[in-house]
Structures are given as C-alpha cells and as structure tokens.
Amino acid sequence: MVIVLLGPPGAGKGTQCKRIVEKYKLVHLSSGDILRNHRTKETELGKKAAEYMDSGKLVPDQLIIEMMVGAIESAKGNCVLDGFPRTVVQAGELDKELSRKEKKIDAIVDLVIDDGILERRLTGRRSCPACNAIYHIDTLKPKAEGVCDKCGSKLVQRTDDKPQVVKQRLQTYHQQTAAVVGYYADNGRKILDIDAEKSVDEVAALITAKLDGLKAK
Ligand code: ADP
Ligand code: AMP
Predict the structure, then answer these.
(1) Nearest residue to 52 (alpha-carbon basis) of 60, 41, 64
(2) Which atom of ligand 1 is nearest to the CA of 16?
C-alpha cells in the first residue's frame, strides 16, 4: 500500500504519519528526514542538499527522485510518503516508478491549512535529531523541557524553522508544490482533503475515517 500525504510545511504531515504507520503497518518515508540523515552522515547527497535546505528552497528533482525511489524499494512499496512528491516532475516520476513495479498510489491525503497558522507551528517546532520525534513549544510539549520523551536526546530547533527561512519555505510551497494537488486532480485521482487546523487527535481521526472508508469500498 502506498499513501501520499500532501500539505504545506508545518501542516502536520510528520506528526500524522507517525500515527498512520502504526495503524496501517507501513514504513514512514519522510524525504526531509532522509535528507537530514544524509547531512548528519556528511554524505555527498547531504553536502549537495544543505544549501537548498538552509535557504528554504527545494533540492533538485533528480537527486530527490533517485533517493526516494531507493527508499520506496527498501520499504517494498508499503509506505507513507511525507514531503514527496513536492513538484509536478517528482509526481510524474513517482507514477512511472510505481507502474514499473505494477503498483499505484492507494490514497492521496491533502492536509489543508491556512498560512497564518503555519508560521507559529514551524517556528515553535522542536525536533529530536536522533529519533525524529516532533514537539511544539505550545501545543505538544515534551514531559521534560528540551528533552525527547522517546529517546532522551536533546531537542533542537531546525535551522530552517527560523522565521526568515520559514517565509521562504511557504513561498516555495505556493510556487512549486501546491501544483502537485492539481497534477493529481487533472489525472482524475481522488484527493482526500483534511482540515488540518484541528487538533492532532481530531486530524488523526479524520484521516483514519477517510482511509478506512477507502478500504471498505
Ligand atoms: P510537517 O511535517 O507537515 O512539516 P509537523 O508534523 O512537523 O509538520 O508539525 C509542525 C509543528 O506543528 C510541530 O511542532 C507539531 O508538533 C505541530 N502540530 C502538528 N499538528 C498539529 C495540530 N493539529 N495542532 C497543533 N499543532 C500541531
Ligand atoms: P521537510 O522536512 O519535509 O520540511 O523538508 C525539509 C527540506 O528538505 C525542504 O525545505 C527542502 O529543502 C528539502 N526537501 C524535502 N523533500 C523534498 C522534495 N521532495 N523535493 C525537494 N526538496 C525537498
């Protein structure tokens, strides 16, 4: 099963993916997390991606497509894609890759949310660099301040969650990524719109209801 989770930065993709993968026994493939792991390990890809990520721009399609095709293969095609595809070119290549493997996207979920809310979600986000758990200084605090509940590592603010870069990331989303929803709509694909302004639990319940509805058909 392949699920694609769309939505702007800060919409809650990572947060919701962690629940989806548990419930449906899928592998969470976050392109952002994979890139950050490359950067930590100082791989060639990590070095190439750094400048784009730190300025809120997209990493070139070719690098991302190669990386994600490999990740989907490792997950044996049972995955939730978070942060990929982010351009129409990536969406087209994903379709081609899946059809080569006689697979297809089973569900496309779009987290719909106003930009005004996203800035606070992103600048208040705190992340665990070790296990990728996600917190927020107002809404999803860890039990001990600055420490990951799950693995005890020190939480960090991602460099691209600073206000200047957040503005650029939202602009990048509107200029390059929002069109991915249009790509799927133009290709007659059903898009499950979710109101992502609600609480984490409410959003999770909405997603589950829609995915269970698809499975029941
Ligand atoms: P994305 O993966 O789409 O960039 P995240 O899942 O990392 O987004 O969420 C961004 C921030 O918003 C995090 O700090 C997270 O704790 C918080 N968050 C996620 N979903 C909600 C929600 N429904 N209500 C309030 N805060 C949320
Ligand atoms: P994220 O963790 O999803 O917010 O992604 C962090 C950053 O990684 C983005 O701002 C981009 O620079 C880069 N990135 C992640 N996914 C992609 C993608 N599919 N295409 C291009 N760049 C990406």
Answers:
(1) 60
(2) 6
